[in-house]
């Protein structure tokens, strides 16, 4: 059940049977020579939509902008400052709390979002903690990174081995192509991109990773792989969701 | 050409032939008994995508969250505070400036965003103006509200007359249904919703507009009308785009 | 009754008979070759003071700084960033709420303030809306732009026709001269200033409007016109105030 | 020369002969049983206007809102948060820097503003200091508190002795009455108000100072005293201004 | 009793017998040719620790960073912006309020912190004052500047006379050397540093005070003096603490 | 070499031979029945001081306040909001950049700081990345968590096995006792504390972890272990520092 395609009376009815929601969050950033700029949003969105359909879970709108400052030396990348993303997530959680949602799972497609997401959760918690507010009824935000799920990792290892890499990975390229119904071709030079740290500014990042890839060879990606990653991702996310619901 | 479905080398090539971009912006908010919560994002997104395809214009990711505080008494509404939306738009414009975009048209689907969008543009301009920075090269943001376009207004008047209304309008319900491939039915009581001001808090809004509609009878909406609104909207947006490009 | 000239026991007594207040808001910005930099504050201040005297309405201090970033390429202009003006208005409304004021009419003299004023109202509303706070007792801010009042517009059309213009208009120049007891002379070249959009940065604005006027010929202004604009403005504002008080 | 009553070409001409400006800043807050709520703005404004006329100094618009949180338990008081006032002063200084002003003297009428004014100056300096920006050309803000001037203090001691007090003082009540052309009467019980610290919240302040006065007996104030305080204040301010101009 | 060396059950027990706490606050900034960069933190920390031991007062962690923007042209200086320091102090006070502390004395070692500390207290008070929150139970922050204590000032006058100065003073150099067990030697040229205002940016400050000292000759400092300043400082602080506890 | 105990000419000399600095960062938060509230600051501080002495590295002041909102239901805990900590770290990095430092290693003692530290680094990078500023000369912040070092982890496993735990661990209790020269005794019930997630608000945390420990039995801690952890920590940190210096 997608929030964007529902009416408010339908959401009111949903809240009678569940107070949980899944919100896909991604980024708009370069993904190497053959990866889509929307990769990090397209992947968790597709997994979330399938998850929502199969298990009657409400899926919020995809948050397409993330923390991607290190990719800004590549055309097309858009980035929020961490402080902006924290404010955006705070307002989203405040809005959901208003309606009685108590479980909010952010289904994340971008490693660079993780620190800011956690800082945002802490910012929201801090408001309650400093005010000695009772915990009852407050939404408990949680994070699941689809690309770190067990089944997804196993499938990537099986299909690409070491060529999976860390950014513009073969797996995410495959999944986003499948979902978007597109395919891009590009020569990878070197075949496997260099390794290194992404915790730097945009100029440094581009110097370290000249075509935007980190440790990957996404020329191995195939759209048909995408279908398998989608299945693996939905199974991983469903497991995460059940863990969240069972907690306490 | 959609940014989300492009690679960075494709964006680099686009920037050789144009430094303009269109960014759809909407809201996630109640739209009455039969309107979709995503209406305000779905409509400008569909118009933008068609515009981009027909005229080779780059279309950015849809910004799905807007300023919708007055709708928060209806389940499912998510709202950014104006200050958060200003920060988000500032970061988006800063990112686009980084790549050399000089024309940014926000294709807006939500009346409640207008004041904040203009304040955000002024916030970005103020940084330059206070620093006495030269205007050359800075992105000039502009705003086009699809629901105020001439052709769209004429079509709505022709199809619905006074029952078009001001929120959860028949026209936007028709266009979003068409785009999303859904249709919802609900009885409208009263047939035409009350009129009044939306510049108030959420409780007051719900007291004034009990089912969320403002002055409209969206039971008149038909999916096939949506196809016509799409055409009208694309023509209106194309006119706005050309005006923007011609300016100076 | 002017707040600045009252004691707190007098305000306490006023609150027994009314919980409404009018706050003039303007800007400190260039107004062309013969217009005063304080025009936008002087005009609504004079109207508010007369309104307050005739109808026993409390008039708050004039907020002289507004959002005027586009005028910063002309010496003497002072501008608040929109985010600053939002904070200022929030604190003002919070202060008024503390004392039990429930109706706050901002009598505005500057078109460039409108978007930020509306964003500020929404920022204040959002705090309540996100917290699901009851609407009772909260101040309802409202906006009235004296230069858009019916009687004022009719008088300007009668006196100046198309030469009234959009910034450094003949009507505001006349009213401010009358109120301040001054008069300035300057040659207008061209007689009627160019038209265009003011939604840009300061350098662009000055390039578009070399002497600061937009579409006007303020050499037509006469101090004696000012007296008539004052009367028209007070009548328009009184109508707006009554509408506000009647609302709900 | 008052900025509000000047045209931009006049300011441009002024900048040829001087790059200094005086900005009156006050507060909108209770001043005891017979003191005006606008006292803290009216006093420095009157001194600044006279100073400007006699010595050809440009006088900016009066900033009427200050940091008055401790007075909020008395009806009519409006207060900015310190963080808001810092932003307002930063934008004002940034605007003045834009035009080439290098000396900005804030002529202050409210003790409660002092800490925040100094913090604001430091906030503006910090931007330059952290960026290792050259000091040349940046505006040097300075502060002069008219109520602490030597001549003013001597006159207050002569006229009122210990009954001058610390808030709602006899001297400021006299000056503001003179300037505003009003006079209020009220019985003072006790004759001299209690002493104590004002660095507390509003409820505590009102408990300590039940009618709003601190250590004063403003029933001693006379309008004719006001004329003498104005002269003393202008002489003190002129001395402060000359010191500022001579510095370095 | 030092908070850093206590367990939470020990703090819980302390709160049974007292709800007061002392928090040392300093700065990390140049202190001339022979003064330590940590001087402003080391001095109040040592006084606070001794105070806490002798009188069973809980001593919080030393806040080592202060508002030192004017010293940034000297290597090693670290400065918080005033707005950052305000946020830090607000969070500290909010945390202490959470546990039931009602008296918080900041034992300050840096003149440049005073304005920002007072602004921060007002920021915290304003939240309560604007909300009309009852004063009961809220922490009352207070400030004591050890270098302005009566006994300390007398001792400095006795030992150094006019060579004590205003920054990198002989007294603070002596106390910090004693506390840190170090001693530095440097030639002072001129023997007594120039006088002037420190309310300026970093470049201006260094131009005015080339080696960082203001009006002092810290070559007179001796470690054995430090022991006497410590005693004087503890006695002064104890007096301040008792005044705070007695208040109301 | 400790910054706090150095003079500015000594820092100037240091910068001739190195542009790196280590800044210890901790937290002020409960550490179970026998752990010190200052544990997270004391441990990295001691390691940093030893590291600095042995290898001539400049050590900045210890940042004692961290992100500890989840511990606020235990008396004595102080927490910064993530947004405040981000501002504090930004100002610290801006200050260091001013002096020419290019390598800043935060030696961290608190797991709860990690996300906010990374968000803060990204906030600083984003300023450069959005401005397309050249990377040359900007400080590269890096993070080393002493409790995750290889040697430290091995020693903890050897000494405590599974009883080491995740908060109020035996290893950090031992090291802080050793460093502070104290020892506390308390009965642990149950002997090994429960496991679970700390990403929640304060009330929830205390419900999950009633005495503040997470998975640990710190009654196993011994001061003499602390000496060994110090050695292990210094060796781990030295390795991290060398990796940082070698990078690029």
Automatic annotation (TrEMBL), chains A, B, C, D, E, F:
Keywords: Hydrolase, Metal-binding, Zinc. Gene3D superfamilies: Creatininase. It comes from the Bacteria. Transmembrane segments: none annotated. Pfam families: Creatininase. Its cofactor is Zn(2+). The keyword Metal-binding applies. Belongs to the creatininase superfamily. This is Creatininase family protein. It comes from Halomonas salifodinae.
